[in-house]
Amino acid sequence: MYENENGSGKGGVRLERDVVVTEVALRDGSHVVAHQFTIEQVKNLTGKLSAAGVPYIEVSHGDGLGGSSLQYGFSKVNDIELVEAAVEVAGESAISVLLIPGIGTIDQLREAADVGAKMARVATHVTEADVSKQHLEAAKHLGMEAIGFLMMSHMASPEKLVEQALLMESYGADAVYVVDSAGAFLPQEVKTRINLLKTNLNIDIGFHAHNNLSLAVANSLVAIEEGANRIDGSIRCLGAGAGNAQTEVLVAVLDRLGIRTDIDLYKMLDLSEEVGNTIMQKPQEITDSSLIMGYSGVYSSFLLHANKAAKKYGVDARDILMELGRQKVVGGQEDTIIEVAKQMALQKEGTLR
Amino acid sequence: MYENENGSGKGGVRLERDVVVTEVALRDGSHVVAHQFTIEQVKNLTGKLSAAGVPYIEVSHGDGLGGSSLQYGFSKVNDIELVEAAVEVAGESAISVLLIPGIGTIDQLREAADVGAKMARVATHVTEADVSKQHLEAAKHLGMEAIGFLMMSHMASPEKLVEQALLMESYGADAVYVVDSAGAFLPQEVKTRINLLKTNLNIDIGFHAHNNLSLAVANSLVAIEEGANRIDGSIRCLGAGAGNAQTEVLVAVLDRLGIRTDIDLYKMLDLSEEVGNTIMQKPQEITDSSLIMGYSGVYSSFLLHANKAAKKYGVDARDILMELGRQKVVGGQEDTIIEVAKQMALQKEGTLR
């Protein structure tokens, strides 16, 4: 039922695994702790994740290398120091960094490689793969695994997604990830896309899920069934929005299905409890706001602005988010949010007259 | 793709819905609040669930009518008073009660019917449907919808499950539910079972999911795809173990799929926030203990006893739970738990020598 990709490994961390897990709590989870991870926390988690056999561990600001800023939130400790700390205790695991061109630079990628990062995930909006060319090439040149990471994938048609993934393949990417940033995909939509990518690409396919519609683990299973062999997870769901696919749950479910991750479940359960008790300031539940983000398909950064605009113009923030989703608005376009709210207020006024 | 069961409704609450949702926060969620629901809470939630268009609302002790006891935990307010309070504000919604023969009695069912409960869900272990006969017949006699509720369904083969469901059908049940009490089902297992039931039964099929493997919503979708048209949900997941399929998420996802529940999403989101702020003492996360229960397939009541036995005999509680799952131990068989722990300790000692 499941394809076995044994032996196609790069970098020596693949072993006999059917599915290669990248733990993103120390990157996507950075959003949850307002980018305040300490050296001690990074070392502790990395050491224990490595001991549990997690092959890749991503360490970066939530918005990638260079994300520490007024706009995205300042980190407590800079990325390179955190990466260096992680590398020291990573053992057999490889440390990954995320890079969003425009936020992070090739210089920062070089610094990360210099301190021992082995994998670079170059992230662009799903329709903007062309901006990843230099960065993917730079990663290869630096001797890193180079991964394309197509964010907000649900905004593109399956055909557009394949076109963009092929661009990343042509730039030398070792794998391309379908990234469900808003947690908006339904299982059938994942199935169609991974299937089409598998047919058209010759490199590994990855899937990165968020749990806004409570489908992160299920969508990851569908992706694996269709041939994806790289899956992201986050211990205790630590990540933006409603959080990610929960790593320890993925490990348990894949084990039940006979799909090898070579990750020790009990060690992950111990770490899950520790993370719950020590790192999490609030649980990763599906709240009204994270659900409406998955439902409307907009990114979590819109929420604060939509709430402000809703208050100012006397409309429902959820209606604003739904309209932004329909218009497929991307990035942090506050102007659009205000414009949508204004229009809604005018329409409402017109209806009331 | 999805069957439309329009017009097959009983009791006038079905309307044009494709899927009929029963909200179980005021029954399964009773476990979460140690059975301390007040009249005010039940009225508030029932009124708002009714206003949102939820067709069925279940109100009972977590272990059903008569559950209030030293063994299962005493309720703050007795079941019949809570049911009566709910009925007062239920509007178009029907109030359901759960009854586990052996815990609750036919007298209690009559009392519930007398104060206006419209549906009785008679719950037995998946292999013990025969004990539901009198109670299902009594429910019909009392003019209630009579529903069979096969708990711990994952413990039976698909064929055994069908055999037991057919028994309930023969006793006059209007529907039979596949109940994933331990949150242990994988999607393919749900698919096989619902498909086989749909082929063999002439009554409605229901599905009740728990989220221990993060698959509650996904498994509910699979059940619907295979022909189930009654689905349980719990607002904010309020329920035993890792909680239930989250009702507001189900509503959003089914809406995205074009499957009608006729439930107002925004009203459910408002209620979700209120429940999160006022009723929940702790979030419904998937913790190390709820995950191991879904993984091993044992019921949540085993956990405390397994932890005690683990401490006493110096073994890992998770290994005890896994062994109990392998032995398909049911009910609150503390003797078995201690026996398993003892054997493990002896084996461990033998290995160490």
Largest sheet of chain A: 8 strands, parallel, barrel
Taking Cα atoms only, what radius of gyration of chain A do you get, to the nearest Å? 20 Å
Briefly note the structural class of the backbone of chain A. Answer: alpha/beta
CATH superfamily of the largest domain in chain A: Aldolase class I
The CATH class of the largest domain in chain A turns out to be Alpha Beta
Morphology call of chain A: globular
> What do the pLDDT scores of chain A average to?
93
What separation lies between the terminal Cα atoms of chain A? 61 Å
* Largest interface pair: A-B, 40 and 40 residues
CATH T-level fold name of the largest domain in chain A: TIM Barrel
Assembly state: homodimer
- Assess the beta-strand content of chain A as a share of residues: 5-15%
Q: Biggest sheet of chain A, strands in spatial order?
A: 1-2-3-4-5-6-7-8
Low-confidence stretches of chain A: 1-14
Q: Count the helices of chain A. How many?
A: 13
- Could you state the order of secondary-structure elements of chain A as H and E? EHEHEHEHEHEHEHEHHHHHH
The CATH architecture category of the largest domain in chain A equals: Alpha-Beta Barrel
InterPro entries (chains A, B): 2-IPM_HCS-like (IPR050073), 4OH_2_O-val_aldolase (IPR017629), Aldolase_TIM (IPR013785), DmpG_comm (IPR012425), DRE_TIM_HOA (IPR035685), PYR_CT (IPR000891)
EC number (chains A, B): 4.1.3.39
Family (chains A, B): Belongs to the 4-hydroxy-2-oxovalerate aldolase family.
Catalytic activity (chains A, B): (S)-4-hydroxy-2-oxohexanoate = propanal + pyruvate; (S)-4-hydroxy-2-oxopentanoate = acetaldehyde + pyruvate
